[in-house]
Each structure stands twice: as C-alpha cells, then as structure tokens.
Design the sequence.
C-alpha cells in the first residue's frame, strides 16, 4: 500500500497542505520546527488512529481555528483506493471512506504503517516502559485484536487503582471482580507478546547480520512478573495467584504492583543482555533491526507492504547504516524527514521542502 495524496488543514503549524506522494521514496527536508515531523505525524494519525508523541487532541490543532482536518488517499495492495480522514475538534473522529471508525482496530485492520523515530534507536538502553510501548504498538499493528485486550486491561487497571485509593472492607468483592478481568486480559496479552517475540527473533536474525556485519546471534525474550518460572502454561491461574499474593502491598501503596504493565522485553546478543554488554554500535544496530524486522513481519502478517515513516533517523546513523536501511526498505513507500539530504537516495525519489509550515514539492 502507499499514500497517494495528503491534505491537511490547521494541523499544528501546517495551515494548509495538498500533496501528491511518490509510491517509493519521499524526502521531507528543512530546518527544525518547520513541519517535517508534523507531516509524518499527521499521516500516522490518519492511518493508525493516534499520534506517536501526543495524547491531547487539542495540541494537534493549529492556531487558525479550533478544528483541524487530515485526509490521506491510500492505494492498497488490492488495487483499490480508500480515504482515511481524521477530524480534530473537541474530540478526535476518524473516517474510512466517509464511514465513522468506532474502534482503532478498524484502522489497524485497514492500513499498515511502521514509524521510526530517534527514540527507537534507544530501545535497547531506555526504560522497560519504552520497550513495552514498542511491543504494544507493534503487536496492535500486526494483530488488531490485541489493541482491544490492551484497552480493556488499561481501563480495568485504572478502575482497580481507583478502588485501592479508597479501599475498605466493602471493596473486597469488587477488587476480586477486577482481578478476574485483569487475569482475563493480562493472560491474553502475555500470550500475544511471547508469540510476537518468538517471531521477531526469527525475522531479526538475518537482518541483524546484514546491517551490522557482526557474527552475534540476536534474540528476544519476555521478562514477566507473572511467569516467574518461565512456564507459559496456565497463565490466567498464575495471574490470579500473583494478584492475590501482592494484594496487601497493593492496598498499602494504592496501586497495582503486579501485572503486564510492569513487564519488559529482553534483548540478547549471543545470549547476553544487549543493554549491558553491547557496544554503542551494536545497540544501534539492534534497535534498527527491531524496526526493520517489524516491517517484514507486518508484510507477511497482513499481506500488504507497510508505509514506512523515518523521522529524523538518518542523522543518528553512520553512512553505511544509512545505505543499508535504504536498501532494506526498497519496494515500499518510505517517508524520510531530515535536515540535510546528505545520503544516497533511490532513483525517482521525490523531494519536499518544509519551511514555516509550508510543504512544497521540489
């Protein structure tokens, strides 16, 4: 699939844009804070239902009005064209071919997008929360049902934590109800994550050798505070036991100390944690490998080539890695935002200049 046309009105600093994109490589260049990242963000928002960096809808709306609109005309691999639109006002409303989108799952089922950011290059070294977010977003894109489990889990977790803040004897029965819901959703989330990491290990192996030139074996594991014995059997039962064992601590702290919201992804090079033992170059190669493997997994799982968004990633890479990334992403639509175009681009690349919120094809 690829984004054929893009329009935006009053989106952040973009007052108005009406662009036709190349089905191959598209370069958006210019100084910082000129609209490059906002364009990439708007595409991701329209196709995937959320911004990669902002949770408040109001912050996405520019100064000219109290509403904003983004529309992407998308050519899919089924040789058909659909229109993804997002309206931003007091609330955020998504549409596919003028039909209201009721759940994010509908967008994730219709479109495939993979977003690279400089933060992704720190996946190896940053906090567990960064890696959980990577897993959650990646798995939601591959298997939209996962996003429903995650939404239900987070909703129940908020309600449980609220109950814990004012806990009394009468809250016992309600707490048990919440525990049942957490165990239902949480055990499904664990199964999805374990399966995802097994497939990621297979997909990443060849790519890591290709982009790093090293001989280490890359693999990924799941660090769980539920499956402490590394046995994936009877997950729901173990979840309930873990919640019961930490219930007193939860009541005292007024928060839920056990569950998938505390889990992590283990990144290994030849069996050793890359965070501790990997060199800076190895860590960068590993983080790149994660996203490149995700591109391949997305294409296999959904039967369509994903749109690739690389936001200011090239400046973080040396020249050899830049070249390899471009080569490995060939055959897909790619958007690259950058300050300088000091790297080799494929023939037929389209260039767009960003200045003061104006995006102009060169």
Sequence:
């Amino acid at each position: 699939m690829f984004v054929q046309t893009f329009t935006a009105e009053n989106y952040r600093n973009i007052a108005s844009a009406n662009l036709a994109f190349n089905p191959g490589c598209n370069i958006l260049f210019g100084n910082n804070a000129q609209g490059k990242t906002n364009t990439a963000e708007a595409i991701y928002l329209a196709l995937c239902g959320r911004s990669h960096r902002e949770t408040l809808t109001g912050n996405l709306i520019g100064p000219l009005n109290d509403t904003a609109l983004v529309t992407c005309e998308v050519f899919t691999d089924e040789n058909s064209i659909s229109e993804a639109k997002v309206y931003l006002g007091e609330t955020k409303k998504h549409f596919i071919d003028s039909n209201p989108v009721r759940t994010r799952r509908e967008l994730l089922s219709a479109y495939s997008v993979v977003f690279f950011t400089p933060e992704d290059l720190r996946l190896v070294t940053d906090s567990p929360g960064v890696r959980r977010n990577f897993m959650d977003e990646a798995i939601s894109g591959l298997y939209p049902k996962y996003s429903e489990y995650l939404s239900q889990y987070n909703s129940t977790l908020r309600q449980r934590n609220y109950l814990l803040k004012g806990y009394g004897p009468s809250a016992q029965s309600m707490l048990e109800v919440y525990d049942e819901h957490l165990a239902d959703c949480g055990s499904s989330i664990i199964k999805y994550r374990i399966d995802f990491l097994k497939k990621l290990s297979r997909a990443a192996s060849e790519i890591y050798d290709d982009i790093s030139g090293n001989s280490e074996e890359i693999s990924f594991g799941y660090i769980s505070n539920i499956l402490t014995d590394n046995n994936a059997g009877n997950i729901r039962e173990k979840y309930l036991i873990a919640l019961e064992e930490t219930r007193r601590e939860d009541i005292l702290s007024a928060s839920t100390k056990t569950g998938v919201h505390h889990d992590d992804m283990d990144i290994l090079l030849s069996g050793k944690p890359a965070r501790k033992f990997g060199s800076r170059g190895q860590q960068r190669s590993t983080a790149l490998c994660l996203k490149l493997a995700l591109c391949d997994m997305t294409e296999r799982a959904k039967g369509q080539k994903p749109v690739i968004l690389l936001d200011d990633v090239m400046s973080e890479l040396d020249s050899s890695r830049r070249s390899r990334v471009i080569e490995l992403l060939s055959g897909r639509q790619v958007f690259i935002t950058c300050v300088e175009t000091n790297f080799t681009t494929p023939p037929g690349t389209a260039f767009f200049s960003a200045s003061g919120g104006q995006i102009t094809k060169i």
